[in-house]
């Protein structure tokens, strides 16, 4: 098993695999690649989104299966909007921009009082 993280400067805009937001040209981002249970994977994301993902890992990961990079999907799949809002609020002081981008991607689902976990957004 190995993992590598390298920092790059975006020459053109990219999409972040963690928050689904834009990585603007000229800003830095991380390229993550590794091997998990025999499969190679790679992801590209904002540096603070990577940190937020690691911070949420204990809360959301299935310890046999790990955790997908797509945080909107991971979160909306497992908990209700109210619970999601609580865990995002708990991270806001550490990763304010990453939390903002994630709330933007989840805005319709978070605003739905009747939504349950298990929704794919
Ligand atoms: Zn991001």
From TrEMBL:
It comes from Gemmobacter lanyuensis. This is Uncharacterized protein.
